Amino acid sequence: MNITELVKDSLKYPVSDWKKIVVLGILIVIGGLSSLLNLFSITNYVLVMIFVVIGLISGLLVDGYLFRIVKTSVDGENKLPKFNNWKNLLIDGVKVFLTFIIYLILPPFIVFLIILLLLGGSSSFGIYITSIIGSTGMSPTIFLVTGILTSIENLFIISFSLFNQYVIIVLIEFLIILPLFLVAIANMAYEREFRAAFRLGEIIEIIGDIGWISLIKWYITTGVIFLLIFSIGTLISFLFSVSTGSVLFYIISLVLALILLPYAQIYYVRAVALFYRPE
């Protein structure tokens, strides 16, 4: 399947069942409720824990369903999978989240620690991290209560803040490690085995068979379209925030979160599966 056909299929695929888009949107919105903690300066420990636990479960279910889409897509299915067997969704969500941590959180964290040690700044690590979190407005729990694709976006912002003097580190992470992570998820889905996500030799061989040039074209094309979909939602929200009252703005934002966000995420994981899928 060439890139054009892949993109067309991925864009049409989510609308095969709007009800499932809305269900996924509801889970995404529930996970995003944790943002209210900062918005309303909620510090009550019990409330914080309740929000985090509910958000964590919702985020893992989102990841589990997106992973189910990858599994059914690499198997040749052309319809959105059902929302059933929630226990398996949760387990798959945990697997995806752990893969995300190992591929995209640990490497830059280790590099950052090494840089601080080399610069003699290890004692200021906690202070520096706190300042970064404060300046970006993001709590570490953002990775627990959001779907993986949203977490990747947040990771980019945090990584750029941490490594603004070492842009090459951010580029390596998002131009090399992220594509490997995406193919690793697809390999785990195809092999039905958690360990398959970490067989780097096998993953690199698969990419080699598909073609590294094809990987670059796919990564750029699908990524740009994914960002465009998000940009459309951001622009609509901004226009309503400027031209209407706050209540209508929040309503529009909620509708976008229920439809546009899940549509974009389904589109992207479908594109990942189609890129990987053995012909």
Can you describe what's shown?
With 279 residues, the protein is mostly helical. It has one domain. The protein is 78% helix and 0% strand. The chain is built from eleven helices and no strands. Helix 1 (3-12) crosses helix 11 (246-276). The protein is globular. The model has no long low-confidence stretch (mean pLDDT 80).
What percent of residues adopt helix (DSSP H or I)?
over 70%
Number of helices: 11
Distance between the termini: 8 Å
Quote the average pLDDT: 80
Low-confidence stretches: none
Overall domain count: 1
SS class:
mainly alpha
Order of helices and strands: HHHHHHHHHHH
Q: List how many beta strands DSSP finds.
A: 0
Layout of helices and strands, plus pairs?
Layout (H helix, E strand, L loop, with lengths): L2 H10 L5 H15 L2 H5 L5 H30 L11 H33 L6 H12 L11 H15 L4 H25 L8 H11 L1 H32 L2 H31 L3
